[in-house]
Amino acid sequence: MGRFYRCAGEVLYDTQQDPRGGRKCKVNLPQSCQAWSFLQSLQPLSTAYPSFCLRVKSLGPESKIVAGIAGSAIEENRAPGHWNNTVGYHSNTGRCYSSHDSTANTGGEVIGQGDKLSVEVSYFGKKSSTIFFYKNGLPVATRYLFETDHSQYFPCLFLEKGPIELEVVWLVPAVEKQPITQTDVSHWIRSPATKFDQNENIFMCAKDKDVEGFLQGTVSLGPDLPFYDVKVEECTAEGVGPTVAIATVSPLKPTPPCVLLRDYLKWEPTNSVKTGDHIGWGVHYSPERRDRPDFDPRAEQIVLCYVVKNRVMQCFQMMLQPTGGFYPMVLLSQNASKIKVENGKTVEAGLLKELDKIYRDLLADIRDMLETDAVNKRLTLPMLRLSEALEVDITPDNCHVTLPSAASGVHAVQFLHPLTIDSSYFYIEVNKLSKCYRTFTLRSINSDNLKTF
């Protein structure tokens, strides 16, 4: 490990070049190297330098690049994204992984010779952060990064099978980023089956019964974009139109059991829309907090999510907004394959007043539900049966169990609540595992009828 970088394998780079200078750094993997190599900058991304980028100068037919963000704990024979609390983008498939999982709404694209790949922390959150991946300046995928320690947000490359020749800028200043506007929807991330007509400003999906078109906005809903507006350009004779939804950048970890915490909400108009109708979701914030100077619309907080059709509210639901906020999403189908997105509209005064009233009327009950959920999932030491050598650290969200290296023999921990039909699984995250030292993290999960650890 050097002063500026950590590396393994046969990767070639300038060991003395400070990544903080914003200069282009040449990174090469020789053709003779058919195994893996690892390279990590030891300067973390930050709000001042939220992204890093690479341009592919040369790439062999079987070469692979994994670019992502990982902390110092990652082993050098593991790619970012295939380690807890890391993210990584695979150049040969476009698949993106977060803590081993590639499940998400957005899938990425293949990166080849001449392409530019950028990895950006779009929001630094307390419990998690949001990551955007860009191909040639356009967003192609989003993911959560579940590492809470921002000082561990190190840019990381995992290279396989040369020849690979890259030009890397390890720390890109925030001032160099071109802002994405809420009204320009041409940058929305979309599935391969979905096309965008720049002249008509219309999204179209291939008319195939086995193909579903997908769109995800790249600006989260908030005070500057309180709702998104989809104009229905096509629907069935029975009034079935496109599905509108809101979602986080990727699934939460673990799957949230609390009824108030969801990473996906959708509304399917059945027998209720016609061509020319306007539909969409909105997110409404606390009337008492949203105008404060320190208000953060992307922080975890209680929000009122609602569906509008032709500016009239159709339904609503109070939610605990996850870190990073909710993003617009539209699903197209064979007979509802064409839409136009018209953002930039404001909430009318009458609807704003109605939303404020609903929020205030429901707030006390929602707080009671969250308090009940916190009490039900609260873990105490008497709930555990464990070997004396084990060390336990209980937090509101986790139970950390550690076996010190000096302890020999077999040790066990048991949660003294049985698994049931309604509480049928428990979740374990292995943080460190070696011949003489093992650490596990057990997360508490709770809903009305579910409690597992």
What does this structure look like?
- The protein has one helix spanning 349-376, and strands spanning 5-8, 12-13, 25-29, 36-41, 51-59, 64-70, 87-90, 96-98, 116-123, 129-135, 138-145, 154-160, 164-172, 189-190, 194-197, 202-205, 213-216, 230-232, 243-247, 264-267, 278-284, 301-309, 312-321, 327-332, 338-341, 384-386, 391-394, 398-403, 413-415, 427-433, 438-443, 445-447, 450-452.
- With 453 residues, the protein is mainly beta.
- It has 3 domains: 5-176, Jelly Rolls (Sandwich), CATH 2.60.120; 221-332 and 340-374, Jelly Rolls; 381-452, no CATH class.
- Strands 2-3-13-5-9-10-11 form a 7-stranded antiparallel beta sheet, with no helix packed on it. It has a 7-stranded antiparallel beta sheet with strand order 15-16-25-18-21-22-23, covered by helices on one side. A 6-stranded antiparallel beta sheet has the order 1-4-12-6-7-8, with no helix packed on it.
- A hairpin with a 5-residue loop joins β7 (87-90) and β8 (96-98).
